[in-house]
Every structure is written in structure tokens, then in C-alpha cells.
Amino acid sequence: MKRLYRFLAIVIILIISQSGCVSALSATTVGADLITVTTVGHGIKDAGIIYITIDGDATPYPTYCMDIDISTQNGNRYELGGSGADPNIIWILNNYYPNTGLPDGLSNREKGAAVQLAIWHFSNGLDLSSGTPEDVFAAARAIVDYASSASIPQIPSTLDLAPSSSTNPLGAQHTVTATVLDPSGSAVSGQEVTFSVAGANPSANPVSVVTDANGQSTFTYTGTNAGDDTIAAATSFIVPSGAIWLGVTPSIQRLVMAQDVPRSLTQSATKRWSDSTLPTISSVVPSTNTPCGNENVDITAHVIDNIAVTSVTLVYTDQTGQHTVDMTGPDGSREGDWVGSIPGHDAGTTVTYKISARDQDGNEATSPSEGDYAVRWRDCAAPNILSVDVEPLNPCANEEVVLIAHITDDDGVVSVNLIYGSSTTPMVLQQGGNAQDGVWMSQSPIPGQIAGSRLEVQVEATDASDRSTTVSQFIHWRDCKGPMITEITPGSVDVCQGSSVEITARVTGTANINEVHLVYADPLGTHDVLMDPDASDMWTYTLSGCPTGTTTEYYILAIDTSGQSTRSDTYTLNWINCGITKSASSQTVSPGGLVTYTITYTNYWDDAVIDEDYPDKMIFISAYPQPDTGTNNRWTIPLGKGTITVTLRVPASSNTKFNFEQEASGVGFVRSWKDLSTAREPYDLVNKVTMSSPNSPPQIATSSITVTGGTGVELSQRESGSGEYLREDLITYNRKKNYIKEESNLSVKHQSTSFALPEGRTLNFNSTWNEAECVKNYLTSESLNELYRYSTKIDRTSLLEMEGNNTRMEVSSDFQGTRHMGYVKVAETDEKGHITLEKEASSDYSGSFKVIEKLGTTYTNGSTAITDVKHYDEPHLTVYQRGEQDATDSINLSYTISILNDGNAALGPIYVRDVFPAGTYFLDASIKPSEPRRSELFESRYANWTFTHLPIGQAVTIQLRVLRYVAVDVPINVVYVSAGYDGRWIYANDSTATNADYLSCSPQGICTKAQAGGGWNPPNWGFDLSWDTCDTCYRAGSNAQSNCAACNV
Predict the structure, then answer these.
(1) Which of 205, 325, 394, 592 is 20 to 30 A distant from 624 in Cα terms?
(2) Pair 433, 387: CB distance under 8 Å
């Protein structure tokens, strides 16, 4: 045997040739217990036990091989052999391992090998005279010596049950036959077969029958219940030791059972018992035999069946056709009530219907078996009086009235009567209607009644079933006189020229007022307009004013809903020359000043008065003539013309002064601002005067004056950012003196901060610092501003002071970011109203710098003195740059670049590089660039200059022009400067965006020579400059002239 058994589980299947329903056995290997032996003539083999499971049973059963030279492979199929093993082999299996513990003195694996060698001796003639292991072969020879013949009992292999399915009527007998065969197809007699029934006719106990000589046993039973049965047959037996398993395909190793195995076979058949009995519909009962019109009718049917009722239907026929209704009831029961509904129909309708019942075997019964049931709907409602109308709807006094009624009824109306007082008058069906739906009119009218009378009338309708309906109606006779017009205002009056007039009238009446007209005639013709209603029966309309001498006649026409109308008397409006005017002694008044108003009037009415409405905070000084006693603003005036003068004082301006000190510090996000101003804004005062009289609409006149303001000084401050923050302010303010002074210390450092919100949320800030201060002195036409942006650090101490003609700024600042400082002085306005710049200074920084700046201006008797000082206590330079369009050619851009040594050490060498704006190339410069070479300069993107020495307090200025060949919205020019001192270097850079709308100027005290940049020159840096920055040659120090002579530009 091959060594394959050491690693593989071999699948063994028993296949039995079968016909009909057959039960078969199968087997599967689950392991082996083998050793290796050396044989005579067959070489080395694996010998021992192979364990299998049979027919899905998890119990392992031992087997031995029958063919020494044929291997068993994974997946081979087997069938049970027709005959048993050799009698000697059967004897060995029954008397040795694993059925007994023999042979002695060996391990179980060696015992199995010895038994296998003995089996091969009888099945294959194996020579056992020698071989290894010696003890195993010795045991095998002993087994062979003791072997005797044995026999194998007959083994059942298949169980067949016939017929497999059939159908019988209830009460009949049914027989099934079970056949048991062995593997060779021979009948197995004496084998017990057990029968049982489940389903509609279950057996109380199983029945066992032994097979006859033909291997058959029969079972017979009677079905009393309709439905399906399952008949089961089963037989149990033993597969004994010595049974042979044969391979289905050739050359497959045979196996022999080494142990008895209990097995069983089962088979089943189906049986259907049918029912032919019809259901019985024992009763059919409607919910009512006399339904009213449109009333639903429920039908209840009682149904009985010997098995089960599965459905009941109600089939009814009306004028629209046949309809089927599935009735509800105890589905699947033998007896019960089933209910269906026939929808309501109009009165007079007859519907026929049937009931059909079906059981589970499809047996169906119908009731009634012949003809139909019937139901008829009757008219159960009295006549329906849909409406009763009175003509006319609102009769006038003594006017006859006719009643009209719309009536419907299913049976038909046979009579309608009109009843009022002691009279009963029949009503007549009008043409076009009928008894079921018609209009009826009173045969004779109801006599008219006096105004205010109220009469109850009744309409009674009776149908063919003698059912009646009565409704009541009230008729009111009214007074049909036209509307009443009262309280017409203003009647006939004189009206001031141009004044509008509101005309009102109260209109009432017994009927509702439909509309009211104002009809008036003026020089343009006659006009008819509708007046507008308001509360309390009042109607209004406003006539526009007319010129002096105009006469307008008018009257009121009212119409009610009955068509009655009433016209009023005619009234006259006369527009006369009257009115009032007001003027002021001056259109502008200083705060606290006096103003005199003159009131001129023309009065045509008695009891006329003039009322002054003084603006808030104006003070009454005097008036002529004197006001009425106890007042300062009312005059009772006589007829005719007159004049009143009133003198008032306007409010004085406030003179506020204060000292304010504050300090704030912390970490977080800051946004703050402050605005201070001593200026006073002008404002208007409107004075109103009214002349009124009970006989005329009021006349109003106004006069407006302007209270002048005053220029002053302003200070504005804005700051924002996140991080560390410290600020101290001391502010002095005096509005009367136009004085503002601010002393402040600011220290900020940028960092990200967050603010805790409810529910665990946060608000994060990461904003660099921005700081802006701006002062404006309108008395001297000066403006000064300092701006820090995108700063990560600012340490700044400042003093800003303005008082009348004085402006002063002192700033010491250490910052990282960008800084701009600008100063502007505006010249006086010329005779054409044009304003030009008189003085200007500006500086820009970007990077990390320390700056000290002072600016003080004093104006005395028209003279000017300006001081401007900048310096640093360390080596330092400042780069200043200005760009603008060339005044002579707008295609060119001009840049002035100034480099100032404002530190405490001489600098040199100084390297300057200018990177031209995009879309430009070099045109010319006041100082020749050191590189690139001239031939390459006009194609280069930059130019370099080298200066050997720059003393303390000295500056060098380069005038540069570039030509634009591509239009860029904001051309940006960048300057880089590096300067040496004592073997060390300092660096600075500046960038500028060209302002094409800049107004150039030529500051005093610098130079007057016009430059290519439009006449602008660098600012006065605050130092003694011994050279002319407007020249085209760089010069510095005492030898400036010789240096200049050496230039060749």
C-alpha cells in the first residue's frame, strides 16, 4: 500500500444502481493507523487500519485493504460488494484486532499491521515466511495458522416505497409496498419495515411489517380527512465484519469491513385525499329590507363546509352593470358568517344580488340556486327647500312682494304653499322645472306694508310620500326716501389765494350710501369727483388752491344703494389776497448771536391770531408790537395789513475741556479707535409762524438761518492686531482754545490668540499689528499722519500737540513691519479757488528699524519756520523713493531715490541696486550707473551704482527715468542698498508704486530747478546739506566742487 495514507484522508462512496425512490449508503475515510513493512515479492508496503465514516455518521469505523499491489487514492468511489470476504478473512476479523486485543505483545498499530498481512495472505497469497518487522510477521503467521472459515449474513442495500404519490377520494383505502434488496439486487426476506403516516390523517402509532420471500411488505390505511399525507417506511440492519467495498472504476483497492456497523434505510411517499362535498349557504340576511336613498346595505351569509371555506363573494347588478365584492369572514373555518356591503343607491333603485361560496378543494355553491335576491331603495327624506328669494329684496313701503323657492325631492314634490298671517296661498311650478327639481313662485303677491313693517312668511313643500318641509323668511319694508346730507363744511367762505380747501359732509339714510359726489364749477368748467368716506358717515374731498379773484361754486350729491339720490344747496368759495410772510435779518449767525425776524401779514377775518414756533434753545429777546399777555409768541391781529418784528438769540456753542488718562494691557485681540476735534459744524435753524382764524384755513410761513461753525484741530487714532498689548495715553482737550495734546506709549508684539466660547468652542485670531495716527490743523492747513502696517513688533513713544497756529510731533519708534510718515501743508486758495501744496515731507520703511522723528511748525505774523530732525545712535541709513509720471512724457516714469546717512558713523562703500518695474527699460539717470555696461544697460532689468564714501548727515540722490513699453496697472520700483562700516554691513530696501495722479511741488529751501520727474525734489532731511541735490552730479563735503567737476554724465 502506498505511503499516501500518512497524509491524506480518502473519500469512499457507496453507489447502488437504483430505479424509482431508493435509499443508498456512502462512506468517507477520516484517517489511518499504519506502519511500514518489508514483504517477500511485494517490497515495502504500508500496513494497518483505515478509518471510515458511513452514510454521514460521524463515528469512525475500521477497515483493512484487500489488494496488496493496488493503491487507494483520494476521491475514489465504492459500492458494497455482493458477497463477503474469504471465510478465513472473516474469521480473522471477528477474532483479532480491532474486535479483540489479539495478537498479544504488540502495539495497536503493530496489531493492525499483523492482521493486514494475514488478510493479504488469504486475498493475495502473500508469502509470510520472512519480512520485517520480524515480530509483526511472526504474529501474522500465527494468525494464518489459526484462521478458519466464516460466513457473511445478507445485508439490505436499498429500500423502495411504491407508489411514490397518488390521489384518492375521502373514505377510500390506500396501500403502499416497501421492497428491500441486498447489494446484488436479491430480495431480503424477514427484514422488519416500520410504516407511519403524518399530515391530514396522522397514524397514532407506527406499524411494523416483516418482508416476505420477495423482500416486500405492505401497509394499508383509510383517509377520513381531506388534505395531504406523508407515508414513511424505515428499516434498520447491521453491516457485519467481512463486508467487501468494491471500487466503481477499475484497478481501485478493495476494502473489507473490520467491525459491525448498525445502519438504517428510509423512504417516503405522498398521498392526497380529495373532497367533493359542496359548501352550504344556510342563510342570507340583509341589514335592512327597506333602505333609504343612498344608504349602504350590509349582506350577511352563513356558510358551512365539511372541510374549510376559503372565500365568499357577493355579486350584485345595478343600472351600471355587474359588481363583485369579496366578503369578509372566518377564512379556512368550517362554519361562520361572511359579510359584504352594497353601496347606497338613489331612492327608487332596485339592485339584484347572489352569494357564492368556495371551499379549499374548489367546490363552489351559489345562493339562491335559481334567480336573485333583490333590494330596493326608498325615499326617506322630506323635500329639500334649497332657497327662498324675495322680490324685490328690500321692498319700499307699500310695495308688493313675490316669493320664489327652489325645491328638490326624490319622490317628487306634489304641493308648495306660501303661508303668512292667516293666509295660505299655493305656489306654482315654473316652466323648465319638474317635481324632483323645480322653481316655485307664489301665485299671488304679498300685499305691501307700511315702512318699518316686519312680516314672517313660510314656505311649505310636500312630496308624494306625504313628507313635508317648512322654512321661514322675514320681509322688511323700508322707508325709501333719499339720503340726508348734513354738516357741509366750510360752506360759503373766503379763502386765501393758493390755499387748498377740504370740503366735508355727513351723509346718512335708511339705505346704505353707495357714493357721494362733489360737483364744483370754476373758470375751467364743471367737475364731478367722488368724495372719500371716513368714520362716522363723513365724506371728504380737498380742492386745490386758486389765484386771487377766483370764485368756485359747489354742491354735494349723495346716492344710496336703492338708487335714491339727494342734492345739497350750492355754496361759494372766494379766493382773496391774504397771507403771511417771514424773513430774517441775516442768513448766517454766529453761535450766541442775535437774529431779527420780520413778519408781514394781510388779514381778512375777525379773531385771527399769529403764533410763532421758536426753534429749540433759541432765546426770546424782544418783539414789536408786544405779544399777547402771558405769552412771548402769540399776537391777536386786527383786520388789514401789519408787521411784527421778533429778536431772538441763537444757542451759544459749548466750550468743552478735559484731561483724560488711560492705560490698557493684556494678551488677545485688540481693535480700538478715537476721534477728537475742536471744530464746530454749522447747522440750520427753521422758524415757523402760523396765521389762523375759525373762518379760514391756517396760513404758514417759515424762515431758515444757518448758525456758522468754526475750524479747529483734529486727532484720529486707529489700531488693531493680536498678541501682547500695552498702551498708555494722556490727553488734554480744550475746545475754546483749539487745543489737543496726546502723549502716548505703545508696546505690542504679534502672536496668535484665541477666545473661549460656550460649549467648548473657540474663536482664533492671528492678525499682525496696524497702528495709524493722523492730526489735522485746519487753522494752519496742515496734515500729519503716521501709519504702521503688517507689524510683528511696535515700541513707540509719541507726543502730538496742536494749539491754534502751532503743530508739533515727536516720535521715537522701534518696529518690525512697514511704516509711513507723511506731512502736507496746503497753500492759500488762489483767486480761482484752486488749492495747491505748499510743503510736503514723507518717509517709508519696510523691515526692522528704529526711528526718531520730530516736527515742529510755528506760524507768526505770516512767516514760516520749519524744523525737521532725524538721527540714530548707531550706524544707520534711510532710503527714500518717490515715483510719478514724467511731466514731459506720460510714457516715462520718473523716480527720485535718496539715501541718507542718519546714523552715528560714516559709511562706505555704498552699493545701490534698482530693479526696474515690469514692462519698463532704462532711459537715463542723473548719476551714471556703474553696471551693467552702457551697451547692455537698455536691455537690463536693473542698474547698479557704487559710492565710495557717505559722511554722517550727508545724502546722495539719484534721478532715474524709465520708459514703459507694457502698460502695468501699478508699476513697482524696488531699491536695495548695502553700506559698509568698520568691516561690517548694514542693509536697507524700499519699494514704491507709481502714483500717476500726484500733484508735484517744489519745496522751499531745497532747489527750484525743475526735474524730469515733474519738479519734485527729495525732502529736507533736517541736516546741513552743503551740496545741491538738484544737480546731475554726486557731490559731498568740502571738495564738492572738484568732485562735481570730475563727473562726466
Answers:
(1) 592
(2) no
- Cross-strand bridge partners of residue 512: none
Strand bridging mode 972-981 / 61-65: unpaired
Residues 37 and 87 reside in one and the same domain? yes
Same domain, 543 and 691: no
Rounded CA-CA distance 248/50 in Å is: 19
- Cβ contacts of residue 235 below 8 Å, gap of 6+? 156, 159, 178, 180, 191, 192, 193, 194, 264, 265
- The 10s digit of each residue's pLDDT in 519-538 is 999 999 999 999 999 877 89
Beta strands in 531-639 (DSSP E): 532-533, 538-543, 551-560, 565-567, 571-576, 579-584, 588-589, 594-603, 609-613, 619-624, 634-636
Burial class (CB in 10 A: 0-12, 13-18, 19+), 606: exposed
Count of alpha carbons within 13 angstroms of residue 646, beta-carbon side? 27
Residues 447 and 509 in one domain: no
Q: Determine the distance from the C-alpha atom of residue 363 to the mean position of all C-alpha atoms in its chain, rounded to a whole number.
A: 63
Residues 363 and 345 in one domain: yes
> Which domain covers residue 98, as residue numbers?
3-146
For strand 165-169 and strand 261-274, is the pairing parallel, antiparallel, or unpaired? parallel
Count how many domains the chain has.
8
Q: Residue 627: which residues within 8 A CB-CB, separation 6 or more?
A: 633, 634, 635
Is-contact 353 314, C-beta < 8 A? yes
Spatial distance between the Cα atoms of 471 and 391, rounded to a whole number of angstroms: 17
Same domain, 108 and 215: no
Measure the CA–CA gap between 150 and 241, rounded to whole angstroms.
Answer: 10
Q: Is the dihedral of CA 516, 522, 524, 525 positive or negative?
A: positive
> 213 and 132 in one domain?
no
Centre a 10 Å sphere on the Cβ of residue 94 and count the other Cβ atoms it contains.
17
Asked if residue 350 and residue 298 are part of one domain, the reply reads yes
pLDDT in tens, 918-944: 888 898 999 999 999 888 888 888 999
Pairing of strands 972-981, 910-915: antiparallel
541 φ, ψ to 5°?
-160, 140
CA distance linking residue 385 with residue 437, whole number of Å: 10
Among 799, 826, 855, residue at a domain's last position: 855
| Residue 664: inside a domain | no
> Of 830, 855, 880, which one is at a domain's C-terminal end?
855
Contact assessment for residue 698 and residue 495, using Cβ atoms and an 8 Å cutoff: no
Q: Which of 901, 1008, 915 is closest to 960 using CA atoms? A: 915
Summarize the confidence of residues 881-904 as an average pLDDT: 84
* Phi, psi (degrees; rounded to nearest 5) at 194: -105, 130
pLDDT one-digit tens code per residue, 275-287: 788 899 999 999 9
When pLDDT is cut at 50, 70 and 90, the band that residue 1024 belongs to is: very low
599: β partners? 582, 644
Q: 378 near 288, Cβ under 8 Å?
A: no
Same domain assignment for residues 181 and 63 = no
Size (the chain), residues:
1049
